[in-house]
Every structure is written in structure tokens, then in C-alpha cells.
Write a structure and sequence with these properties.
Number of helices: 4
CATH superfamily of one domain: PRC-barrel domain
Number of strands: 6
Largest sheet: 6 strands, mixed
CATH topology of one domain: SH3 type barrels
Order of helices and strands: HHHEEEEEEH
Structural class: alpha+beta
Distance between the termini: 69 Å
């Protein structure tokens, strides 16, 4: 019986060693996937689809000032701007505006845009999708600023 368990232990150890060798990283190579640190950032981040898109945005006084409709990703991969529907009628946006995502916060279970009012938001120039690329460009084509 001891020999059987010793054989199981030896096989499991060998299998573990083979798996470790298969996952070894080579210095200087770009790994595919995410690192442990990046995985932690994902866990702490927000799901755009589940937590942000289509959600109402309120000011710090609790008044609804818009709805988050889209997020524009800058060519340098920084998520930069939210597209807010400042005025909707029957679910159709009448006036979209672009704002830096850094101006939004998640407070008390709501998206909050501190200092915003309906009048101020409606006074922001309208955002037009026709001025945004429909197809991303490669990183090497994007000039660093």
C-alpha cells in the first residue's frame, strides 16, 4: 500500500515539474495574457458593460444630469473620455457630450459628476461620432505625444 502512495506522489511530483517547465517565462519575451498584478487591477476595476454603460449620472446634489452612453479609448490605450447623453427623449439621445472619465466618480452606488448641472452640461459643445475613427490604428502608427 505504501508503494502505491509513493508511486502516486512521484507521478504527481513529476507532473508538477513538467507543468512548471511548460509555463516558464523567458527573459525579454512578451508574455501573452495578464500578469498577477494586472489581474488584481481587473478585480478592482469596473466592468464597462455591467457597471457603467447606460447608467444615469448625477451631480453632487443628487440631480440626474445625463446617461453614460459610450467610452472612447485613446490611441495610447488610455481610457480617456465618456460620452454622456445630456438630453434624451424616449431613449434617443438629443445632445451627447464628451467628458474626461476622471471627472466621474462612483459614490453611494451612483455615477457622480461633481459640479455638473443640466444647464452646464447642455451648454457643452455636442459630441459628434463622425469625427471619431471607426477602426483603431496600430500602435506603431500612433505618434507619441
Amino acid at each position: 500500500m505504501k508503494a502505491k502512495w509513493a508511486l502516486v506522489f512521484l507521478a504527481a511530483s513529476a507532473f508538477g515539474a513538467v507543468c512548471q517547465q511548460a509555463n516558464a517565462q523567458v527573459a525579454g519575451e512578451q508574455p501573452i495574457g495578464i500578469s498577477v498584478e494586472q489581474a488584481q487591477l481587473i478585480v478592482e476595476g469596473w466592468s464597462v458593460k455591467k457597471s457603467l454603460l447606460g447608467k444615469s449620472i448625477y451631480n453632487d446634489s443628487g440631480e440626474k444630469v445625463g446617461v453614460l452612453h459610450d467610452i472612447i479609448i485613446a490611441p495610447d490605450n488610455a481610457v480617456s473620455f465618456g460620452i454622456v447623453a445630456a438630453h434624451q427623449f424616449l431613449g434617443v439621445s438629443q445632445h451627447d457630450v464628451a467628458i474626461p472619465l476622471s471627472q466621474l466618480d462612483y459614490v453611494g452606488g451612483k455615477l457622480v459628476w461633481a459640479g455638473a448641472t443640466r444647464d452646464v452640461v447642455k451648454a457643452i459643445p455636442a459630441f459628434q461620432y463622425s469625427k471619431v475613427r471607426t477602426v483603431p490604428i496600430t500602435r506603431k502608427e500612433f505618434g507619441h505625444h
